[in-house]
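One-letter codes give the sequence; the fold follows as tokens. Both lines appear below.
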Amino acid sequence: MEKAKKDRLKSAGWRVGDATEFLELSAEEAAFVELKLALADYLREIRVRNEWTQSQVARRLGSSQSRVAKMEAADASVSLDLMVKSLLILGVSRSEVGRVIAKAA
């Protein structure tokens, strides 16, 4: 959020914070959310870079298009295990998956 907008909201009596504060997440929970979002973003990036549709990715994974959409949205029903396995199936190296995870930290 822009500093000017943040200042306007504060001066109007609003409390301004981030999602971690709003949801009262612990540091570990916030780190988990960031990790999941990073993997979801990277999955989408790989799909777009390869000019694949969600349906094409789903076929490669033996899954459904709606499941791929949930993975890209970091839906709560999608495990980290599924995200990592899917990236590996799509040809992403272990070191690249590790880089994405390290960057999220």
Notes: The mean pLDDT is 90.
